[in-house]
Amino acid sequence: MIDFEPTEEQALIVQTVRQFAENEIRPRARECDEAGDLPNDVLAAAHELGLVANGLPEEFGGGGEPGAMTGCLIAEELAWGDLSIALGILSPSLLGVPIAGFGSLEQKKAVLARLAGEHFVPGALAVVEPQFDSDPFRPQTRATREGGEYVLDGVKCQVPWLEGGGEVLVLASEEGALQGFLVPHEAPGLSAEREKNMGITALPTAELGLSGVRIPVSARLGGDAGADMRQIINRGRVGLAAAAVGMSRASFELARDYAKQRETFGAPIATRQSIAFKLADMAIEIDGARLLTWEAACALDKGEDATRLAALAYSQSKQVVLKSADDAVQIFGGHGFIRDYLPEMYLRNAPGFTSSFEALTLV
Known about the structure:
- This protein is an alpha+beta fold.
- The protein is 49% helix and 15% strand.
- Strands 2-3-7-6 form a 4-stranded antiparallel sheet, with no helix packed on it.
- Strand 2 (142-146) and strand 3 (149-160) form a beta hairpin.
- Helix 6 packs antiparallel against helix 7 (105-115), helix 8 (229-261) runs parallel beside helix 10 and helix 9 packs antiparallel against helix 10 (307-332).
């Protein structure tokens, strides 16, 4: 039987992150969306809390507490505050989690200490490709070995591209095998163009072009041993599912509170059967998505193959987040359509989960 009761330490983490999201993230959500940029002071404050560094190995400056379940709890609370800022805060995990789990000793020394250091350092993971049949397990991007180097060719999109990053982990096919490669931002042949998205506008994402990018053989994740990139994709899907649950919860709570306050014909609209039933359905679907996400996270923490569970959690959560955002707009009525209220922003952000975002965070 799966026990979903958080440990005492996890409960304390949830309380801390929830307070941070309420006091520091939620009040900045709208201004960051309008400005199209992330608040550096909030990123720095989150880094001081150790929300990513806590899961990195102690010998490289981390807290030594890795765990997909704990990561899910953190991701949900941060995304409840704001999705764009949450993904920015968690971006170091895009490098930290794969390297901590599969990186060579040299890669761990070079990257992990920097991620767990005094200042916030973002990470980047390039998974998705700009084509209708993009498959993270079978990328069109190719890695060809030539002597002591790899040559990378291909195009990636929806890659978090925050200022201050040093490397991007690129998923590519090496003779039909899925592998990861650490590519410096300044590598010759690597180009990055910021994308203009409908939602999640505060998070800078880029389309990367790799044209004859040469990196040393030692840049392959895991070195000669390679890495299980399927597990990385699974952790990305579980992380996104948790973020979707957090944003769904935010939509529900906004709609619920508004329905209790908004009166028509002398009574709150929450007393109307159509509104009450809609809110009840939202709550049921959100709880169901959360349980699926937690089940997948438990499988990851046990070292089991979580491919099926991660796919189910991600598929269900991205449907729930879109429905919850739309329902919130409907309950707000005309107010839900104007920028003075958050449901409008949530409805623009939610389709990001249902389009091509596959790995914007890892747990």
